[in-house]
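User: Okay, second chain of the day. Same drill as before: sequence in, structure tokens out.
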Amino acid sequence: MFIRSIIDSFPKTWIIQKRYLPKIKIPEYLLDRTVKPEEVLSRLTPEDTERLEFCMAEYQNMLEKGADVPKSLNKRNVLDLLCCTSPTSRMKFLRFLFKCEKRDENALMKKLEKMRLVDLRSLSNQMTYVLNRNRIMRPHPFHMVLCGLKQGTNQFAYMEEAFGVNAKLSTIKSLNDLPWTITPNHFSHEYPIHDLEQPVILLSPNARQTFEAGEYDHNAAYVIGAIVDKAVRRPISSAIARQLRKY
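Assistant: Same drill. Structure tokens below.
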């Protein structure tokens, strides 16, 4: 009874860390990498099953404490973890996976940032085409309003570059010199969504109804979402329309 009270007084984490302290011998079938990890894990011996449960409990404990371990483990990672022969080797392996995970995350973020800059520049170049087409529309060009365009942002700088603002021999000194209106506000602030006198129509490539050429309501405000980020794969513009309809 006295011994049990002493054991119960130990922190659970200490017991977990010390239980399998001695190095163990890894069975040959666990080291066979010619077999898929799913198959190996499906035919574990009772001893290896118990050891796997302990390893996963140890991993979950470290994850909850914010240790340098990966957010998740695939089947190959689980099998490799089971092949570690000591708590130290398991810790080193999990830390290695953590570093690989962070490296991949950083590489992905750099790639997405680069893609976003490319997309911002692409949008600016497309806007030069839009403005030129709008100028030649007859009998009435659209009154274009650029919503959400804020000075000091990358998008604003790319727009200035695309339209030659302050460029040599350019007569354009500001984006506001061009035939449109620029506002930093969201379009829903400029055009009330449920205004019956001026309906707001959000154009989306994911809409069920097709917009036919010449099918214009001259009292309506047509919204074109400038979403050209290739990192975004979801139908954002149609989702925004459904969300705004609730309010």
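The beta strands are 145-147, 181-183, 200-203, 221-224.

User: Thanks, on to the next one.
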